[in-house]
Design brief:
Elements: E1 3-8, E2 17-22, E3 28-32, E4 45-47, E5 53-59, H1 71-92, E6 115-118, E7 123-126, H2 157-174, E8 178-186, E9 190-197, E10 205-207, H3 208-213, E11 224-225, E12 228-231, E13 241-249, H4 256-266, H5 271-283, H6 288-293, H7 300-311, H8 316-323, H9 326-332, E14 336-337, E15 343-344, H10 354-370, H11 391-412
Parallel strand pairs: 2-13
Antiparallel strand pairs: 1-5, 2-3, 3-5, 4-10, 6-7, 8-9, 11-12, 12-13, 14-15
């Protein structure tokens, strides 16, 4: 019997697509999902732009599951594979922040079999298999006088199903409602006769039943057509819908610690924090890079210079900066003024030693982020203060240091698992 695993992700809201990953130990898909087993909190309509996604994988046989001595070890192995795939995704979508590093947990384990968790485990619902469990002699109340009347083993669903059905159909019918309006000198409509919809909604709107259908999206079981995934219960119906499909292949296993540093940066929303975490990836190689280059690096300034030269081929940083557009390059060629009033010198992109210029620029930004001293040896120095306009300086540098972090991880080479 197949086993299906689903793992929550961070910063996955609004993906509105299916991403299929293959190439490593097992394939996975990332797709929108209806978190939390909604019961009392079920909505009539869901917006894809507000739905989170989850990583889902399937093993047709139990022996295909990675070997493990504990559930914790298995979770680490799953997270490791998810990280490898998401690293490839991040390289193609560096502006997105999706990671497997979870702080807001969406799943839970039920403590028993009689009461099961719903509504993100805020509701415990009585579950009795009246139709198949011979140990249950009788279940009855004033509405369902015999155990054969309870068609759903989650007993409260025998009530809620019809309520939800009425709710969904009623709310869905409102989407098509229009009114005839006549105005004269209205501030927005002007003068005339109009037929206007009562509501305007995002194209990515699903009914409750369509949202529940998202669970059918599983690796190697996708019904695809022309770059789209057909979401269906297996037979054609008016509730079927489509999602965009993106396919990514990964073939390399990278160092887990490096990816943890990398994704710590990816998930950060504050540019200053993001810069600091990406810098950790470069710092990992502060002793390795000089040795590889055959150089001496006695200070951190020299070490980061070696790392940049080690991973970046001549001209590659200029190409990367140019790929982000003319306005981005122009901002880098301007002095940056920190909130302390001290400037961080501009980068001259036309110089032949651009790699050294960039490393000096990144080091200056790093020092301004890490050090918070009001003065140093009596002198005011550049400081970048979180939650201030200084975030724009770190935001300018973040794409470059993320690009270098990616190069570092790739340069480090594939590890064996």
């Amino acid at each position: 019997m197949a086993q299906i695993f689903e793992y929550a992700l961070t910063n996955s809201m609004g993906m509105k697509k299916v991403v299929s990953f293959e190439g490593l130990e097992f394939p996975i898909v990332i797709a929108p999902t209806l978190h939390g087993e909604p019961l009392l909190t079920a909505q009539a309509l869901y917006f894809l732009s507000r739905m989170e996604s989850a990583a889902r994988f399937r093993f047709e046989k139990h022996e295909l599951i990675p070997k493990h001595d504990s559930d914790k070890e298995l979770e680490r192995k799953f997270e490791y594979i998810i990280d490898k795939y998401l690293f490839e995704y991040s390289k193609q979508h560096p502006q997105e922040q999706i990671t497997s590093k979870i702080t807001d947990f969406k799943y839970w384990e039920n403590d028993g079999l009689t009461y099961l968790g719903y509504d993100e485990n805020n509701t415990l619902a009585l579950a009795l298999d009246t139709l198949n469990d011979d140990s249950i002699i009788e279940v009855s109340n004033e509405d369902f006088p015999h155990k054969g009347h309870w068609y759903d083993w989650c007993l409260v669903s025998n009530y809620t199903s019809k309520f939800i059905d009425t709710y969904v159909n009623s709310m869905q019918s409102i989407l098509a409602k229009v009114v005839r309006v006549e105005t004269k000198g209205h501030d927005e409509l002007g003068t005339g006769k109009f037929e206007l919809p009562l509501v305007r909604v995002d194209d990515g709107i699903l009914t409750y039943y369509q949202a529940c259908m998202l669970e059918v999206i599983q690796p190697r079981r996708l019904d695809t057509r022309n770059g789209l995934v057909i979401v269906s219960r297996g037979f054609e119906s008016e509730g079927d819908f489509v999602l965009l499909l993106e396919e990514i292949r990964a073939e390399k296993y990278y160092d887990a610690d490096l990816l943890s540093y990398y994704f710590a940066a990816v998930r950060e929303h504050l540019p200053i924090s993001k810069f600091r975490c990406f810098y950790n990836v470069l710092e990992y190689f502060f002793e390795v890079a000089p040795k590889e280059l055959g150089e001496q690096a006695k200070s951190e300034r020299e070490q980061i210079s070696c790392v940049v030269k080690w991973v970046a081929s001549p001209g590659s940083i200029k190409d990367f900066i140019d790929s982000r557009g003319e306005s981005y390059a122009q901002r880098i060629e301007m002095d940056l003024i920190s909130s302390s009033g001290v400037r961080i010198n501009a980068v001259a992109l036309s110089l032949p030693n651009l790699e050294e210029e960039i490393s000096e620029w990144l080091y200056a930004i790093r020092c301004a982020i890490v050090h918070s001293k009001r003065t140093r040896r009596g002198r005011v120095e550049a400081r970048l203060v979180p939650y201030s306009e200084d975030e724009s300086i770190a935001e300018l540098a973040a794409p470059i240091i993320q690009h270098l972090a990616i190069l570092c991880i790739e340069k480090d080479g594939e590890v064996h698992v």
